[in-house]
Design a protein that fits this description.
Elements (H helix, E strand, L loop, with lengths): L6 H29 L26 E4 L12 E7 H6 L5 H5 L33 E5 L2 E2 L20 E7 L4 H4 L6 E7 L5 E13 L4 H9 L8 E17 L4 E12 L2 E2 L10 E4 L2 E4 L9 E3 L9 E4 L5 E3 L14 E3 L2 E15 L2 E20 L1 E3 L4 E3 L7 H8 L15 E3 L1 E5 L5 E20 L4 E19 L4 H8 L1 E3 L6 E3 H4 L19 H7 L3 E19 L15 E17 L1 H4 L10 E22 L2 E15 L4 E15 L2 E12 L3 H5 L3 E6 L20 H5 L18 E6 L8 E12 L7 E13 L2 E2 L3 H11 L2 H4 L2 E2 L13 E3 L3 E2 L2 E16 L5 E17 L7 E2 L3 E2 L13 E10 L5 E10 L2 E3 L10 E2 L2 E13 L2 E8 L34 E10 L1
Parallel strand pairs: 3-6, 34-39, 44-47
Antiparallel strand pairs: 1-2, 2-5, 3-4, 5-6, 7-8, 7-51, 8-9, 9-17, 10-16, 11-12, 13-14, 13-22, 14-15, 17-18, 18-23, 19-22, 20-21, 23-24, 24-27, 25-26, 27-28, 28-29, 29-30, 30-31, 31-32, 32-35, 33-34, 35-36, 36-41, 37-40, 38-39, 41-42, 42-43, 42-45, 45-46, 46-49, 47-48, 49-50, 50-51
Length: 1003
């Protein structure tokens, strides 16, 4: 099923890379011979090209960039938001993704410490198009995959203290920087010329009063603990940076070391997430899982006399009540994982000659995090019980066996085995844990310099590897659970024993007695619990050569311009390969989700060019008028073949105070190895609640849909009205890769204006309209959409994706699932307006103020699941799954920092107002506390001061007023989607106020 590359293929690629790199490296020499004396400058990543980038325009100033061309007199048409190191420190950020998620252009994505089911990596998602469509660079060079199970770059690999600034380009840039830049580019510019020694230490913690009257009433009503005021989630971040200039300034080496430790925060420690919320009769309830304690024993509506019972206090059994007997799985789930990270590295450059600068870098990161979710259990995975099991009471034998035609004394052994499915939570064993470790390193080496007065070059090679391991603890071995439940009296001892121990098949088996309170022993747990393990690695090799030219001296200057044509030629080869292996039990699904081994890769060679043509300069009514273009040819010769991307832009400044810009870009994105080769395995998805209070539209005594409709999904007449719903809204899908995927294509339009009016000194304003449409979008058909389409239209394609279990359910058995594997679906389109403004002014003897305003007005975010289907409109909505709309997509967000630079020494104060607009549940016709996530406004405060030469301190509080996050049952509590703890912790401040303090010492 998977495209495994053989050694012969790898040898051919290695030979090709050598030939490619030698050819690319020789390109500058050929140009020298052809053109004679030439000179230019070295290109270093995403360049600033706006002539008016004065010192006052810092942090969130909109600049015009996104080109490999550097010219101080011209402007490229792509808008960029810049976040400076000062702003990063002002928020006390120790996780880079937390800083980026506050920007309106960023759709909050996966965080290393947030979702329980996440890969342990931290991503950034521009425009809500998916993190895999945002290209992450460090100093203009591509980062590797996050891990063998998550393609988007892992921001954990970036040392935040060494970041000089972050440039966020949101107009698409595939023609300039290559694939994955469909939504844009996030470029981390690092400090590479540091001199001296700097030590920095910061501590932080979350504090909350845990006050929410409505949720507190719900917890009391369901006899759940109510968390009180608390301070937790402590973190410490230690950085050491050292640098040295040498040989009269001809070179520099900068090194760094970072250690970060983050303590855990559990959902049970926050009032908003202390229970898995349900909603009924306009009131929140404490719901949960049907796999409970002391257990649910059921026939799921089957048999002559269907049954569903649990154990009664004091002995005996009673009917199972789905409203009160569910298991509250939320408290043991993580809001923030415990995490520890070490990283160190160095970067250096040296002028070998006036025309040749050598440079290189090395980076190493080790990140260890532990995810915890509610205890494992028998999730209705065993199907039968032997009626002569000595742990069964007479009452149980009557209900399970005798009432349905089975007997413990039947002559035919088959008549002694009755259908029984058990949902029993392993509370004795504790929460399921996955200890995930990422170890990554990257080496880079190259040379750059001038080739005379018109040309410059940059040639480099980069190798990176990310190693991944995942150790699972407290999971059940399903084979051993089945063995431990088949218990009979041992004829030799007269005591209960496993059948496999009696017949000698497995003498180590210990009976697992779930049929009486307190019946589970430690010896039984030691037998049925089995650790799991998977590991893998992803490698990346890049070889690149870029030639930059200024053709002014050749006379290639337009008649009304002063600056000549600027151009870039380049070539790049990239090879990415992943391997993931699992232990045998994990591969076979004996510990829960089956995960097949994965191996595969992609290789691509690319040739690209850019040109910028100044048409008119310094003329009446035309201060600047220029066009630019970019083109990239890519050949994914082992997977999707050849593709072309291109861009065309225009910039116009009638006077120096006002500039207009417009650009069109055509981009393609080839599927990455994980999208191509990931194993097809079961996972969870959630469904919204129906009018009858149930999640499956065909479940319950009074289903939300008619029998005719439900029959289209596989429901029989006998099952209709008897199908068990999942009280946790968690159902099964089959997700995974698809080696037959084709490329995505996208069109991006941006048009905007930048103004710095001279009659208002200190004011800068930028307004940009964006429109991006991605076609043949790589995704999956949303499970909810597939189910609804089948119910409503009886379309064979959608009905073919629905597989109901033997009892009609969509969750309790291995043959119950909705197919949601990767495929080229329909389209995703987004449009809106970005506004940025800043105004700096003096306030007399009290210093100066600077007010920034950064906002996004989201006009549309439309998903077409498949060509011809109804559009899913996500702007202003949220959903339970990311396949629909996922995290909140508010139509308006803003960030307004106000910075006061005082006249009293080096003391700076900052107040920031963050606003997130309200969103409604997609598809809901009601408007209530469960279908609306109300708007949130947060206030952040910080102070920074220099107390003596070389010693600085900082202190801050984010979410000063301890605002609780908005909650909904349609978000999820276990992390099965991007939702976690009844909210979206990536989007909202779910943990209360964050308090931090730091000290910085420079020598």
């Amino acid at each position: 099923m998977f495209n495994k590359l053989n050694q012969n293929s790898r040898d051919k690629k290695a030979h090709f890379k050598r030939q490619f790199f030698l050819g690319a490296a020789s390109a500058p020499i050929a140009v020298v011979l052809a053109t004679g004396s030439m000179q230019a400058f070295a290109q270093e990543g995403v360049e600033r090209v706006e002539a008016e980038a004065e010192a006052s325009k810092v942090e969130q100033t909109i600049i015009v960039t996104g080109s490999r061309i550097k010219n101080a007199n011209l402007v490229s048409p792509s808008p960029v938001t810049t976040v400076g190191a000062d702003q990063i420190q002002a928020r006390g950020t120790v996780r880079v993704e937390d800083m980026l998620n506050t920007l309106p252009q960023v759709s909050p994505s996966e965080g290393a410490g947030r979702a329980n089911e996440a890969a342990g990596t931290a991503n950034v998602d521009l425009r809500g198009l998916g993190a895999e469509r945002t290209l992450v660079l460090v100093d203009g060079r591509r980062m590797p995959y996050g891990s063998p199970v998550s393609a988007p770059a892992d921001l954990n690999q970036i040392p935040s203290m060494l970041v000089e600034r972050v440039e966020v380009l949101t107009g698409g840039a595939s023609a300039v920087y290559g694939a994955d830049a469909v939504a844009g580019v996030v470029n981390f510019i690092m400090k590479d010329d540091f001199e001296g020694v700097m030590a920095d230490v910061q501590i932080g913690a979350f504090q909350t009063a845990n006050s929410n009257n409505r949720i507190e009433q719900t917890l009391r009503a369901y006899d759940q603990p109510i968390p009180g005021s608390t301070m937790d989630g402590e973190s410490i971040d230690v950085n050491l940076v050292f640098g040295l200039n040498g040989d009269d300034g001809r070179g520099n080496i900068t090194g760094y070391f970072n250690w970060k430790k983050q303590n855990e925060v559990l959902q049970g420690e926050r009032v908003s997430s202390a229970c898995a919320l349900g909603y009924s009769n306009d009131m929140f309830t404490c719901g949960g899982s049907g796999t409970t304690n002391p257990g649910q024993f059921t026939s799921f509506g089957g048999g002559d006399v269907p049954f569903s019972f649990t154990l009664a206090e004091g002995g005996g059994i009673r009917d199972y009540n789905p409203d009160t007997d569910t298991y509250n799985y939320a408290p043991l789930n993580h809001f923030i994982r415990p995490n520890e990270r070490f990283s160190f590295g160095a970067m250096g450059h040296y002028d070998l000659t006036d025309a040749v600068e050598l440079y290189g870098s090395f980076a190493f990161t080790n990140d260890l995090t532990t995810a915890q979710i509610a205890p494992a259990g028998n999730f209705f995975q065993t199907k039968t019980i032997n009626c002569d099991n000595p742990f069964l009471t007479d009452e149980m034998v009557q209900v399970i066996c005798l009432n349905n035609g089975y007997s413990p004394t039947a002559a035919d052994l088959e008549d002694r085995v009755a259908p029984l499915q058990i949902g029993r939570r392993n509370v004795e064993g504790g929460g399921r844990q996955n200890e995930t470790e990422h170890t990554s390193f990257k080496v880079l080496g190259g040379f750059r310099g001038d080739l005379g007065s018109a040309w410059s070059y940059d040639v480099y090679g980069q190798y990176s590897k990310v190693m991944y391991s995942d150790s699972a603890a407290n999971f059940f071995n399903l084979d051993k659970v089945a063995n431990a439940l088949e218990v009979r009296i041992d004829p030799d001892t007269g005591a209960p024993a496993c059948q496999v121990a009696i017949d000698g098949t497995d003498p180590s088996c210990v009976p697992y007695n779930v049929f009486e309170l307190g019946g589970v022993t430690q010896e039984a747990l030691d037998y049925v619990q089995t650790p799991g393990f998977r590991e893998g690695e992803v490698t990346q090799e890049i070889y690149s050569a870029v030639l930059t030219g200024d053709l002014t001296e050749y006379g290639l200057v337009m008649p009304w311009a002063e600056t000549g044509i600027q151009t870039v030629f380049g070539a790049e080869y990239r090879d990415e390969y992943l391997v993931q292996t699992n232990d045998a039990l994990t591969r076979e699904g004996k510990l829960g989700t089956a995960r097949a081994d994965v191996e595969g890769g992609i290789s691509v060679y690319e040739f690209f060019t850019e040109v910028q043509v100044p048409l008119v300069e310094s003329r009446p009514g035309i201060e600047e008028l220029a066009i630019n273009g970019a083109y990239r040819f890519s050949d994914y010769y082992e997977t999707t073949g050849t593709q072309s991307t291109y861009a065309l832009g225009l910039t116009y400044a009638p006077v120096s105070d006002y500039r207009f810009r417009a650009q069109y870009q055509r981009a393609t994105r080839s599927p990455n190895p994980i999208e191509l080769y990931a194993p097809q395995s079961p996972f969870e998805f959630t469904l919204p609640v129906n009018a009858n209070g149930l999640y499956d539209p065909c479940a319950g005594a009074n289903p939300a849909r008619t029998f005719e409709e439900c029959a289209r999904t596989g429901v029989t007449a006998a099952q209709y009205g008897n199908i068990a719903d999942n009280p946790a809204a968690q159902f099964r899908n089959i997700s995974g890769g698809n080696p037959d995927l084709d490329v995505e294509s996208s069109d991006t339009y941006t048009i905007g204006m930048v103004a710095s009016p001279g009659f208002i000194p200190g004011l800068n304003v930028s307004v940009d309209y964006f429109s991006i449409k991605v076609e043949d979008f790589i995704g999956s058909v949303p499970e909810e959409q597939a189910l609804n389409q089948c119910l409503t239209t009886a379309d064979e394609f959608f009905c073919g994706l629905i597989n109901r279990g033997s009892n009609g359910e969509l969750w309790a058995s291995e043959d119950a699932f909705v197919i949601a594997t990767k495929l080229n679906t329909g389209s995703l389109e987004t449009s809106g307006i970005d506004v940025s403004a800043n105004y700096a002014f003096d306030i007399g003897s009290y210093g100066s103020l600077r007010v920034d305003y950064l906002a996004t007005f989201l006009h549309a975010l439309d998903k077409e699941p498949l060509p011809g289907l109804d559009i899913i409109e996500c702007a202003g909505y949220f959903a339970s799954t990311n396949a629909s709309c996922g995290t909140s997509k508010p139509e308006y967000r803003h960030n307004i920092p106000v910075t006061w630079t005082t006249p009293w020494g080096d003391l700076t104060a900052r107040a920031t107002w963050r606003h997130i607009g309200s969103v409604d549940l997609i598809g809901s016709t009601a408007s209530n506390a469960n279908t609306v996530l109300d708007a949130r406004d947060y206030l952040d405060l910080s102070l920074r001061a220099t107390v003596r030469d070389g010693v600085g301190v900082r202190f801050g509080v984010n979410n000063v007023f301890d605002k609780n996050p908005p909650v909904s049952t349609n978000v999820g509590s276990a992390g099965g989607s991007f939702g976690n703890g009844n909210t979206f912790p990536q989007a909202y401040d779910a943990l209360g106020r964050y308090i931090f303090a730091g000290v910085n010492v420079k020598f």
